[in-house]
Write a structure and sequence with these properties.
alpha/beta, about 25% helix
């Protein structure tokens, strides 16, 4: 059977920001926080997967720190998934209190991304609408202080998604974070299906140009337990099933998932939503790889 290499568990789909590049405001599916039943079943059925080659993200469309059980869920996943390659969350850090920072640092979390798309309040606040740069920066700086105090070996990545709105601050951004114990990722903004905010030259073809690798390696468990195909399908348009229906491994290898892979391989996704409007395969968009850290856009 085909094994997933990346799984996203959306413990909450609620967010406190209105970022200009994010489709969260366009989402039509119901927002909420994952039930204990769906979360625990998801973790239970993951035990049949090759964990040594699996990266687990405990976030998707929402802000993970809005899940009041996020620290408890990290601990639960680590306790029940022995040998897991990596456990990751990505946060905007706006709700990163001192108590929550200590909880995360002691949770067993392997990697935390801080998404900070600017180096000044003037730029950041225009991109990450509803958030406050000064508060976010202070929260992250305090996290580093606590990390050193607790002697935590958690991997920290400070990430900037670059567009015309903040490109002028890339050098300042690197200078601002280079003395902290973290990696700095600078990556271009992408379209998020058809959002139109990509840093890449936009090509809109009626013929599929590329084969997407995501359905061959990735799956998503949404906050209501539904299963999805990739991190760009924010409304779960291509429905695979629900975690209560079967195990993750069986769902990853079911008829609908395999049909999608077949159509991807043939470059014949014209009748499959949302793939048929994705700028990664019908255009020139792409998601940056992690090894592009420190790249100057």
């Amino acid at each position: 059977m085909l094994m997933p290499e990346v799984i996203y568990i959306e413990t909450t789909s609620v967010c406190n920001a209105k970022c200009i590049m994010c489709p969260h405001e366009q989402m039509e599916r119901k927002q909420g926080t994952m039930s204990d039943s769906n979360f625990e079943r998801t973790i239970s059925t993951m035990q049949s997967i090759n964990l040594t080659n699996l990266t687990l993200f405990l976030h998707k469309e929402g802000e993970p720190l809005l899940d009041r059980k996020i620290v408890e869920r990290i601990k639960y996943a680590k306790a029940n998934l022995k040998g897991l390659k990596e456990l990751v969350i990505n946060t905007n850090a706006s709700r990163l209190t001192e108590d929550l920072s200590i909880g995360l640092l002691n949770s067993g979390l392997d990697t935390i991304y801080f998404s900070v798309d600017g180096a000044t309040p003037e730029t950041y606040n225009k991109i990450r609408v509803n958030l406050d740069y000064n508060k976010v920066e202070a929260n992250i700086k305090n996290f580093f202080i606590l990390k050193e105090k607790l002697r935590s070996n958690i991997k920290v990545i400070v990430q900037m998604v670059v567009s015309d709105d903040n490109r002028h601050e890339v050098e300042l951004y690197n200078k601002k974070w280079q003395n902290e114990e973290c990696n700095i990722f600078i990556k271009p903004m992408h379209c998020y299906l058809d959002g139109g905010r990509s840093s890449f030259p936009q090509i809109n073809n009626t013929k599929q140009l590329h084969v997407c690798e995501d359905p061959f390696r990735m799956m998503v468990v949404y906050s209501n337990g539904d299963i999805g195909i990739c991190c760009w399908d924010y409304d779960n348009e291509y429905k695979i099933g629900n975690i209560q229906d079967d195990s993750l491994l069986n769902l990853f290898n079911n008829e609908k998932f395999n049909y999608l892979r077949e159509m991807q391989s043939k470059k014949e996704c014209g009748d499959i939503a949302p793939c048929n409007r994705c700028m990664r395969i019908y255009g020139n968009d792409e998601i940056s790889k992690a090894d592009r850290k420190f790249s100057m856009i």
